[in-house]
Amino acid sequence: MATVYGYARVSSRDQNLNRQLDALSAYGVEAANVFADRASGKDFDRPRYRELLRALASGDVLVVLSIDRLGRNYSEILEEWRRITKELGAAIVVLDMPLLDTRARDCGGSDVTSTLIAGIVLQLLSYVAQVERENIHRRQAEGIAAARARGRLPPPLKILVHMHAGGGFENASLIEALLNGADGAWGGLPKRAAIIGHASLGELIANLVRVGNPNMRQYRLDRLLPLATNLQELDDEAAVPDDLPILGHNAYRLPLSFFRQLPGRFMDLPPEAIGGTYRYRVCPLVSDTAVIAGRLAEVLCLQADGFREAVLEQMIFIMRRDLRAGERIAYDEPDNLKQLYARALRECEPPVMQAEA
């Protein structure tokens, strides 16, 4: 009878295996059949992984949460995948990537196209796993360089670091350097500066606030958003673009009240923390009554809690009814929103009873 095995891996002893173990358990892997290593993914020379290979037999199934738990070496991941599926005759299931499930192919339930797609996905994910490992090492090296410079730099000179954009890793690299002794960072605020390779310093500071970095307490963060906005407008001699992250017109406009970020909740960045405020944007398919009320309050200069819930619900009903009828109306625009409100009021009025003659 085929046996289902699970494999989990973290890179160091202070990292937690629980998330992987929970996922394997939820899939149905028995605890006695789970093999776990605390070792780097640079190669497959790991004691528990070697035990797993000796246990696997033809027809068995190996389950992992994600491909990078197998390893982070591109060529070796592909070789181990071939060894398990071809030489040992076992199947592999990757829980967070359903395409990487060789059981379907082993049972004849998949065609050549799906096999080709799965092969492409495997190669792509294996490549990404190796690139991430290389980037982790690069970020660590940048942090170590800052720490070494700290020991040789006489006061009052300061270490300011700057990282060019590289696949979205620039903020992580800056944070790594700051944690290892750098005094600060410099970078471009304008959007076009980010495009040519500069990390946005405004976004970096906001992210440090988001994760609760204690060093941010010494700054007037309530002035961050207004100051960054003014600098952007001075540089471009124009209004801030709507889509600019954090600074843009739409950055803190809620289309759904569920998206509100809360003070004190880890990784949330409420606008008040950096000198901003929430506003509202009406989207017919997703906006709820709280958003409709907030946007009405902005347009009509009234209190958001002064609108009847039944009227707000009717506004949502009308928007979706118009959409089904093929109407494409920008309800977020003030004039259109006022007309929508008037329509909802009329439809919510009780019918007038005709007096009998």
How would you summarize the topology of this molecule?
Layout: E1 4-10, H1 18-27, E2 34-38, H2 47-55, E3 61-64, H3 67-70, H4 74-87, E4 91-94, H5 103-106, H6 112-152, E5 160-161, H7 170-179, E6 184-185, H8 191-195, H9 201-210, H10 224-236, E7 253-254, E8 279-280, H11 289-300, H12 309-324, H13 334-348
Summarize the structure in short.
This protein is α/β, with parallel strands linked by helices and 357 residues long.
CATH architecture descriptor text of the domain at 4-110: 3-Layer(aba) Sandwich
The helix content, as a percent range, equals 40-55%
From the alpha carbons, calculate the radius of gyration and give it in angstroms. Answer: 28 Å
Number of strand segments: 8
Largest sheet: 4 strands, parallel
- Strands ordered across the widest β-sheet: 2-1-3-4
Mean pLDDT: 77
The CATH class designation of the domain at 4-110 is Alpha Beta
Run of helices and strands:
EHEHEHHEHHEHEHHHEEHHH
Keywords, please?
357 residues, alpha/beta, Rossmann fold, two-stranded parallel sheet, 46% helix, flat
Structure description:
- This protein starts with a strand and ends in a 9-residue tail after the last helix.
- Helix 4 (74-87) runs antiparallel to helix 6 (112-152) and helix 6 packs parallel to helix 7 (170-179).
- It is α/β, with parallel strands linked by helices and 357 residues long.
- The chain has 13 helices and eight strands.
- Among the domains are: 4-110, Resolvase, N-terminal catalytic domain (Rossmann fold); 282-348, no CATH class.
- Residues 106-110 and 193-199 have low confidence and may be disordered.
- Strand 5 (160-161), helix 7 and strand 6 (184-185) form a beta-alpha-beta unit.
- The strands form three sheets. It has a four-stranded parallel sheet with strand order 2-1-3-4, with helices on both faces. A two-stranded parallel sheet has the order 5-6. A two-stranded parallel sheet has the order 7-8.
- The longest helix is centred in the middle third of the chain and has 41 residues, at 112-152.
